């Protein structure tokens, strides 16, 4: 498959039987659109060419979108108009799906650049102990990706989830698979939020326009944070951002030691505390439907579709939910990967939007 770019570059990927084998899968989610399958082949054979291939695909998507926007609706009503609008909806849906898989391919490529393998789909374990976390930890690699300030926040996030068991990497617990999936998705969103505020923090620090408390000495930070170590310790502004992934209910039931155990003040956390409610709400929200879609699909590919039902009383019945055995080290690995996935998702969403505008204000 050959595609021309505006700089005369051509990226080619040859189809081979091996590329379709499960052993060649490098991420839990299988991409299904023609663009996604094309990028999957490049990820396996020549991952360094993915950004160039993506740029070519985005140019074509932009051309297609421009062409569709210039078309005029039929003046006549009735069947022709209904058919025209239906075709437009299908094309828009196909572009959305292609964008989701472009984002996913770029995120996977960033993991490959960092020499980090994504956790495979979590299924019934073949391990004699029943543990599902047979993957390598790679904690050092995952932690090195983030700035020192973001790393402090990630450690606080881990403390919220693991409580006083964060140091017991080999201890095994039997946990709801649905709950672990919720924690993973929440941690992806937290990583997205964290990269977003950290970029602003680093920029303002470079420009020397940080609020004094955000870049002050330890005493001023402790005075600002105070003794409030609850997940809602950022005050009313934090509570206003109901979508913020550090809300304790999102990961309820995971921490044996209770939430907030081990939370420490940090410059970035203090900086976030200076946001008003509206700003925090904006930064805690995922900007595009495509990014939301890929978080949902990646999490479902990793943990499977949960079997839940709504009771006549309107509550969630998760009695059929599968329980899995996982070590606290394995859970930490999942959370670190999820936070990093969210950070990468922010980066690639910004990259793609600069070439093909799809993020709504």
Automatic annotation (TrEMBL):
Pfam families: DUF760. Residues 13-24 have a biased composition (Low complexity). InterPro entries: At3g17800-like (IPR038925), DUF760 (IPR008479). This is UV-B-induced protein. Residues 1-27, 212-249 are annotated as: Disordered. PANTHER family: EXPRESSED PROTEIN (PTHR31808), LIGASE, PUTATIVE (DUF760)-RELATED (PTHR31808:SF4).
